[in-house]
Every structure is written in structure tokens, then in C-alpha cells.
Amino acid sequence: MADRPQGSGMPEKGTPEYDWLYGSRSKAPSSDATQRVEAQSAGPDETRVMPVARREARGSAAGAGATPPGRGRTPAAPASSPPSRPRKRRRFRLGFIPLLLLLVLVYLIGVPLYHWTKIDKVDAAPDGNRPDDQPGTNYLIVGSDKADDLTDEQREVLDTPERGGTNTDTIIVLHTGSGGRTMMSIPRDTLVEVPDGGAQMINAAFASGGAPLLVQRVEALTGIHIDHYVELGFGSVINTVDAFGGVEICPTQDMKDPLARLDITKGCQEVDGITALAYSRSRHVTALSDLDRVARQREVISAIGDEALSPWTFVNPVRYWQINDAATGAIRIDEDMNPLDLGRFALAMTGESQTCTMPNLPAPSDPNRIIADPDRAPALFKAIRNDESVPKQACTPTGRAR
């Protein structure tokens, strides 16, 4: 201990103790010494943290179609645009509806126009003086025995040969206007004056002079100006009723008439075309004969009109075609009637209307014939001429006073 040199008690420079305490300044640090790493600037290929604002800008650029560095190109649809396929389907559906409606409208108009071109036209304007034009529209409806469009089976049932229509048992004046709709029958046995003197049954005018002479006789009898003429044959009635699938009639008694090929029971019932025609032509069963018959004729015409108003007539294209084809198959119209006039006539045949028989009395010269009642008939004729409401006492089913 005495031999230890005396010193300051501090480790000497260069000794391990000195280096451990104060650190070595040598460039080669000890393998286990803690080393301080100096901050270095990022190299060109090192990942750098971008500022927030720059990352957002880069995101916007990517949404516009730019490709971020280091990532694959994955195009994205604009966020504001709906999917393309649903929008195309919706656009197709919206465009299909107007097209469908247009096609339906063209069909509803085109079918009657086509069949109108097939209708026979006749010159129904009489010669000589005629009543002046009057308010409203007056149609003369004539039912003829025209049977040249019937099938062989229909002719066999009706026991009638093929013929062009020279006789009539239906004469109806149909008036439409502001005064209402009136359907007035003129019985075929009505006696009318003729220019050469004397009198004859009104249906004889049709047999001898056709449409023009019949129009002249009706105008002379009633003072009513006839605007349009419509003639219906057997086939028009039969085929139209069958195209509707039948019509409803309501006989007030059992009716069995071999001459008309009719055998039905009392009460409302659905009948086919041949039965409807027989029902409207029968005159040998009821007490008033022809006066009862004209009332049944108006009943059948009204029943056809009711069926025509059914929505099923227009929504079923096959039924619509068949009805137009049947209705125009045995019909004749005056030469002045255009498609619009024919459409108005079809509408006039539908809906509610007053139904009358011309006020009449037995003819003094022949109890089997009738004449216009001189006391009651003028009021009915005047109401139609002036487009006024028809007096109820002048409008009865058989034309006889109540």
C-alpha cells in the first residue's frame, strides 16, 4: 500500500476507465457502445410522407381518372351517375307506353275506316221539294230482307233464298240533338198519299222506288227532313248479334211463330243472332201484330247498342274486328254520309233514348191498315222538327193513346 503512487484519484486519460466515463473521441466506436445517428435527408427512392392537402388533391385527381403512384389503374364510375343498365330499362319502359297507346288509337280508328270502304252506297236523295234543313240530325233506318250475305246454314234456318233486299218491315226515324234522342217507328202498314192520287202502304214505296221514294214518302208524311239513310239487311243483324256473343231480350209472353222461325218463352234471356232477328220480325203472335213488332225491333236495336258500349268491345281486338266486319257486311248508306257521320250514327244507336211508335189509328177504309193520328201525331212530328223534348202523351210503345 505504501508503494502505490499518490495521485489525484481520477482516471487517467487513455485508460479504459477514462473512456468509459468521458466517452472516446475516436472514429471507431466500441461495438457495444450506444451510437447517435445523425438526421439525413430522404433519398429519391425513399417513401416520403405527403402533407394532408397534397394527399387530398391527389385523391381528387384519382377520381378524375389519374392513377396514384405505385397502384394499378382501376377506373371508377362517377359517384353522381346512376347505373347505366337500370336507366336504359326505365327509358325503354317510358317510351313503350306512348307507342302502345298510339298503336291502340290507330287500330280503333283504322278498323272502322277500313270497313267503311266496303259499305255499299246508295243515292237516297229524293227529287222535288223537300223540307228545309232542321236542327239536330235525322236518320232514316230501314230494315230490308237483303240476305245475299248469309251463309247456307243461316238461309236454311230462315228458309229464305239469296236476295238483294226489296222489301222492308222496319222503318225508324232516329233523331239526335239538344232536345234529346228519339227513336220513332213508322209501321209498314201505314197508308200514305201518293202524288198520282189515292193512298198506298208506305213500305210499297221502298219496293217500287227504293231509298229515294221511301225518303220522299216519310218526309211528306211527317215534315221531318231526313239527313241520312241507313239500310240494314238480315246478315247485318244476325252477324252483329253473334259477334257480340248474343243480346238480351225480354218477351212479355211465350212466343211461338213458325213463319218467323221463333220459339221462345216469356222472360229476359240471352239469344243469338237468328233468334234476335226472328223476334224482331214476328207479327203473328201478339194482339197488335205490326204495332207490337216495331216495339220489338227497337228493343233489339237498343240491345245491340248496349252491347256496343261494353269496354270489352274495345279492349279485345279480335272482337272489335268481328263486330265491325259483321255490322258493315249487310248495310247500305247514303252517298253523302262520310266516316264521321257514320260514327255519329253508331253513337246515336247507343245509350238512353225515347222510343215511340208514330201515333196512329185504324184506317177508316181498311181496319188492317193504319193512318197517322191527326190529333196526336202532329205534336210528335213538330217536336222532332224543332229539336224539342217529345211530349210523353205522344210517345207510346205502340202509338196508341194510353
UniProtKB/TrEMBL annotation:
Spans through the membrane: 94-116
Region (Disordered): 1-88
Residue stretches of biased makeup (Polar residues): 27-38
Keyword set includes Transmembrane helix: yes
All residue ranges annotated as the Cell envelope-related transcriptional attenuator domain in the record: 167-307
Keywords: Membrane, Transmembrane, Transmembrane helix
Biased composition (Basic and acidic residues): 45-58
Keyword Transmembrane: yes
Parts forming coiled coils: none
Biased composition (Low complexity): 59-79
Similarity field: Belongs to the LytR/CpsA/Psr (LCP) family.
Name recorded for this polypeptide: LCP family protein required for cell wall assembly
Species in which this protein is naturally found: Nocardioides cavernae
